[in-house]
Write a structure and sequence with these properties.
Elements lengths: L2 E2 L3 E7 L2 E6 L11 H16 L5 E6 L13 H5 L3 H19 L5 E5 L2 E3 L1 H7 L3 E5 L3 E3 L13 H9 L1 H10 L2 E2 L1 H6 L5 E3 L4 H13 L5 H9 L6 H19 L5 H13 L3 H16 L2 H25 L8 E4 L3 H12 L4 E4 L3 H20 L5 H9 L1 E4 L10 E4 L5 H12 L7 E4 L6 H5 L8 E6 L8 E6 L5 H13 L3 E6 L6 H17 L4 H11 L5 H8 L1 H14 L1 H4 L6 H7 L12 E5 L5 E5 L1 H7 L11 H21 L6 H12 L8 H8 L1 H10 L11 H9 L6
Parallel strand pairs: 3-4, 4-5, 5-7, 6-8, 7-10, 11-12, 11-14, 12-13, 14-15, 15-16, 17-18
Antiparallel strand pairs: 1-2, 2-3, 8-9, 16-17, 19-20
Helix pairs in contact: 1-3, 3-12, 4-5, 5-6, 5-11, 6-10, 6-11, 10-11, 11-12, 13-19, 13-28, 14-15, 15-16, 20-27, 21-27, 23-25, 27-29, 29-30, 30-31
The chain binds nicotinamide-adenine-dinucleotide.
The site of nicotinamide-adenine-dinucleotide has 26 residues, from helix 14 and helix 17.
Length: about 725
């Protein structure tokens, strides 16, 4: 053996061929952390020193090839500042160049997932052979950065400028056929033939039957396009990518500018340019937020994974009560992910509607070729619509999604408890009503939990699993496991009115109502909040949620938190609802809706809205977009901090993910806690104080004032 380290080993296979194998010890996958990179370099130097080596094949000892760099190291690295970051990637690049410059041909065998830094290592080889079971890509833009281990310098030289921009700016995973067609790899073979194929290619290169030196030289020189071609390629890419990414996601544009600047240079200069731009991307608040989000997502998965592990039983048969918007969606999602479900309603027409919606969603999948007609009918057969409780004895969990009325819900639960097995879980999809309160009067409150889905169920990733005072861990664990099986991201929260997400959403709506009361135009508020990054502003969101639903929920929240959520004035939403404007569902909310060419509701401002609300709003005046943002965000952030104080949610990471997955909080801002983190708690508290006259929702809670005083942070 030429070399053996904790990550890489170099073994002579005979005939001068060396296998450089990556098998990171103590890990299930290969990732390029700093230690692994140093090990790679040591192995390279051992190979370089051995005069007998004629060629190198790079392989993986895991089922993946390399999943990329180690994201957990990014936080500390990126905090070191632009200069240090650029130096760091230059050091890594020196290692990769040392490998690329070996005096013998190199081939890598890509057996599985090959992402980010993994693909960059593969690009440092002369040839790449890929298994049909593998995939490759540069997902870095999803973290607010772009390939910085030579990937953005080598890729345009290997597959051309247009293709390289597409790979790097979209971050999409590529299948082997695409990788081959575009020239990212030189051959694609069945998994069992991969090793032999890579070795055969290497032998051909060693024998001089392949001109590996010429192939390598292409990576070392400038990009092969003349000046005009280059200008056209980069300018048109910037227009397309810039338009798509928008100003909130700067990484793709930085990647392109870097590629353009480096295109006329040789490898080493191009790498220096890459390092400079990479460092610029790495210090953006977007990279900070998106890397934070990646870590938060991992933390959330770990937390729900450990809950699910505690689940002693598998949910084999589910039931849902109510075939409305939510019940229908829950039945569809359960069926799609393989859990049979009984859907019960009291109105036959509701059942028809629920089944019809599921059918429509599945037909679309068939049209797009994602599933076959047979799969569609198998899925539909997993939903059993019914008007009676006939088969409820065999059901493991019943998810209640009837109207948001505690009296109706309590009556339903009382009836249900007598009809189901003693160990059946009853889960309520209530959006606001306390789970502990709903459990009062139940014979088996330990089997009762909240399972709060978001609308539309098939699209929204979050499920809040709510633990009431008496909910047993076993019931929570089984519910978490079911939510995971349904393809959702469950977050376990403790009980209070509105739980986590709605408890922080309603103060945000309160901020919106206060703005309107004081004379802001709702379209201006929407515009400012959409600029801030929300997928839709609060007026539009109110229309989509349903304004009657929102008014009703606001009542529950006011009862739960009268000190700060009890309305002190008549707000615009209530006034509009009183005039029959319920939002998108009846075509009239803050905006009016009419179907567009594709039949989707298209909004337009409606003079009638202004007429209706004029009695409850001050004379129209302009607000600076910053003020609009602050007046909406401060109550939301304050309430989030109160939820942390009250231990409704366990960690800031889970809190942030809940907002991103539940209500589309702008991902590039990382969540409400990350928002405070980036701004600094002291500045946030100062900002909140400016609006003290607007009421208690604007008063920063102790957690935040303490953080402001001590400099303590949410994310260390
Ligand atoms: N719509 C949302 O955006 C949303 C989001 C999250 C949670 N929720 C919650 O989900 C629940 C349902 O909301 P929705 O929007 O689907 O309401 P919906 O009005 O669309 O549907 C409710 C359905 O329940 C049926 N129903 C009433 N009493 C019943 C009973 N005793 N047994 C069986 N079915 C009965 C009704 O016939 C109706 O079809 C509510 O608690 C709501 O707060 C709604």
């Amino acid at each position: 053996m030429l070399y053996s380290g904790p990550a890489f080993s170099a073994t002579a296979l005979g005939d001068g061929i060396v296998e450089l194998k990556f098998d990171l010890s103590g890990e299930s996958v290969n990732k390029l952390n700093q230690a692994a990179l140093r090990d790679f370099d040591a192995a390279t130097q051992a190979i370089a020193k051995d005069g007998g080596v004629k060629g190198v094949v790079v392989t993986s000892g895991k089922s993946v090839f390399i999943v990329g760099a180690d994201v957990t190291e990014f936080g500390a690295l990126f905090a070191a500042g632009e200069e240090a970051i650029a130096q760091y990637v230059l050091d890594i690049n020196r290692m990769l160049c040392r490998f690329e410059d070996l005096s013998v041909p190199t081939v890598c065998a890509i057996n599985g997932i090959c992402l980010g830094g993994g693909l960059e290592l593969a690009l440092a080889c002369d040839y790449r052979v890929m298994s049909t079971a593998a995939s490759a890509g540069f997902p870095e833009v999803k973290l607010g950065i772009f390939p910085g281990f030579g990937g953005s310098a080598r890729m345009p030289r290997v597959i051309g400028v247009d293709n390289a921009i597409e790979w790097i700016a979209t971050g999409a995973d590529k299948k082997p056929d695409v990788a081959l067609k575009e020239g990212a790899v030189d051959a694609v073979v069945e998994p069992e033939k991969l090793r032999d194929a890579a070795l055969a290619l290497l032998r051909q290169a060693i024998a001089g039957k392949l001109d590996w030196k010429a192939k390598r030289a292409e990576k070392l020189g400038p990009v092969k396009l003349n000046g005009i071609e280059q200008m056209m390629a980069f300018t048109s890419a910037m227009a397309v990518v810039g338009g798509k990414a928008g100003p909130n996601y700067p990484a793709p544009m930085l990647a392109i500018r870097n590629m353009q600047e480096g295109a006329t240079k040789g490898r080493d200069e191009a790498l220096a340019i890459e390092a400079k731009y990479f460092a610029k991307a790495a210090v953006t608040p977007q990279a900070n937020a998106l890397v934070g989000l990646f870590m938060a997502d991992q933390a959330v998965k770990k937390a729900s994974g450990s809950w699910a592990k505690k689940s002693a039983r598998e949910i084999k048969q589910a039931a849902v009560l109510g075939a409305g918007i939510m019940g229908g969606g829950i039945a569809y999602q359960s069926a799609v992910k393989g859990t049979p479900i009984i859907m019960k309603d009291i109105r036959p027409e509701a059942l028809d509607l629920g089944m019809g919606e599921a059918g429509k969603l599945l037909s679309k999948q068939v049209e797009k070729g994602r599933i076959t007609a047979e799969q569609m009918s198998t899925t539909l057969s997993r939903i059993r619509p019914t008007l009676n409780y006939g088969d409820f004895k065999d059901v493991d969990i019943i998810i209640e999604a009837v109207v948001e009325n505690p009296k109706v819900k309590k009556a339903v639960f009382a009836e249900l408890e007598g009809l189901v097995r003693d160990d059946a879980i009853i889960a309520s999809n209530t959006s606001t009503i306390s789970i502990t309160y709903l459990a009062e009067g139940l014979k088996r409150p330990q089997n009762f939990v909240g399972m709060h889905f978001f609308n539309p169920v098939h699209m929204m990733p979050l499920v809040e699993v709510i633990r009431g005072k008496q909910s047993a861990d076993a019931a929570v664990a089984a519910t978490v496991a079911l939510a995971q099986k349904m393809g959702k991201t469950p977050i376990v929260v403790n009980d209070c009115p509105g739980f986590l997400v709605n408890r922080v959403l309603f103060p945000y709506f309160a901020g919106f109502h206060l703005l309107l009361r004081d004379g802001a135009d709702f379209t201006a508020v929407d515009k400012a909040m959409e600029r801030f990054g929300w997928p839709m502003g609060p007026a539009y969101l109110m229309d989509v949620v349903g304004m009657d639903t929102a008014v009703h929920a606001a009542g529950v929240m006011a009862e739960g938190f009268p000190d700060r959520m009890k309305p002190e004035f008549e707000n615009t939403t209530s006034v509009l609802v009183a005039k029959g404007r319920y939002g998108q569902k009846n075509g009239k909310g803050y905006y009016s809706y009419a179907p567009d060419k594709k039949g989707k509701p298209k909004k337009s401002p409606d003079p009638e809205t202004y007429e209706i609300i004029k009695g409850v709003v001050a004379a129209r005046r302009e607000f600076a977009p910053e003020e609009i943002v602050e007046r909406c965000m401060v109550p939301m952030v304050n309430e989030m901090a109160r939820c942390l104080e009250d231990k409704i949610v366990a960690t800031p990471a889970e809190a942030d993910m809940a907002l991103i997955y539940g209500i589309g909080f702008p991902p590039f801002r990382g969540g409400a806690c990350r928002y405070v983190e980036q701004m600094g708690a002291a500045r946030f508290v100062e900002t909140a104080k400016k609006y003290a006259s607007l009421g208690k929702l604007y008063e920063p809670p102790k957690l935040l004032t303490d953080m402001a005083a001590s400099g303590r942070k949410f994310f260390g």
